[in-house]
Amino acid sequence: MKNLLRIAGLTLALLALPAAQAGSFTDSYIGANNAADVIGASTYDISGASITRVGSVLTVTINTAFAGHAGMDTFANAKGIGYGDVFLSQLWNPAGTAASGYSTDNANTGTDWQYGFSLDNRWSNSGGKFTLYKLDGANSTNILNSNSFVTCGSGCTYRQDQEVAVNTAAGTTAVAQKVGTQALQGDWTVTADQSIKFSINVASVSDLMTFKSFAMHWGETCQNDVIEGMTSVPEPAGLALLGIGLCGVLAVRRRRSA
């Protein structure tokens, strides 16, 4: 019985710490307008992504060789190729099939995203800040596609009509809204040749605190590689319920031993 009580005490102590929930997926998405996973140099390759929620801090990590290489290929754009914004939703509705890499999916045919991380400087290789936006309605009014970031026309190949950036423009057609009376911001960091990490405290955003699953989209401004998919990230309350259940089991065993 003493051993059981020690285990219970240790379990409850662990439950008092911020609970970490995590999900990840590999890059099996191709999308519309190209049959290859990666267009051009292998520097554009994306291998996977993870989403974690530790307490109220939500973190999205993109594993990509492009980390640290924003500004390359200036023939495509005066500033070169930059980092895209992160798009999140509770549900994922891609067009096409998994077997084809969702080869008919793009911003016009697939998931309408609910939230976006708008980067302060998508050409920075040292990271910076991003602003959280709530996206209501269709992608066509919320999002700027890859076509808006590649200016070489027919002279180069890239993945067209894919989601790149939150449309933050003012006006009646822009429905993307900053979250909170003061813009809610997070931080993003770059580990060269390895990953890009985006972290934000979402304690005031009930959706992002309680979503049990997340769909996500990210790619470079040319979308020469894109990662899109869905993963489970349990609610923070889940471990607390586990602790309550354990205490209940111990109480029953103690009564039986009396």
Describe this protein's structure.
There is one protein chain. The protein has 258 residues and is of the alpha+beta class. The protein folds into two domains: 1-19 and 236-258; 21-234, no CATH class. 17% of the residues lie in helices and 30% in strands. It has helices at 2-16, 139-142, 206-210, 237-257; strands at residues 20-26, 46-54, 57-64, 86-89, 115-119, 128-134, 143-145, 163-166, 177-178, 185-191, 195-201, 213-219, 226-232. The strands form two sheets. Strands 1, 2, 3, 4, 5, 6, 9, 10, 11, 12 and 13 form an eleven-stranded antiparallel beta sheet that branches. A hairpin with a 6-residue loop joins strand 12 (213-219) and strand 13. Helix 1 runs antiparallel to helix 4. The longest helix is centred in the last third of the chain and has 21 residues, at 237-257. It starts with a helix and ends with a helix. The model is unreliable at 7-17 and 238-255 (pLDDT under 50).
The oligomeric status of these chains comes to: single chain
Contiguous uncertain segments of 5+ residues: 7-17, 238-255
Number of strands: 13
Q: How does the helix and strand content classify structurally?
A: alpha+beta
The largest sheet, given as strand count, sense and whether it forms a barrel, is: 11 strands, antiparallel
Based on Cα principal axes, name the global outline. globular
Residue share in helices? 10-25%
Query: How big is the Rg?
Result: 21 Å
- The count of domains is 2
Q: What is the average of the pLDDT values? A: 86
What is the end-to-end distance?
11 Å
Strand content: 25-35%
Provide the succession of SSEs.
HEEEEEEHEEEEEHEEH
Task: Figure out the total of helices.
Answer: 4
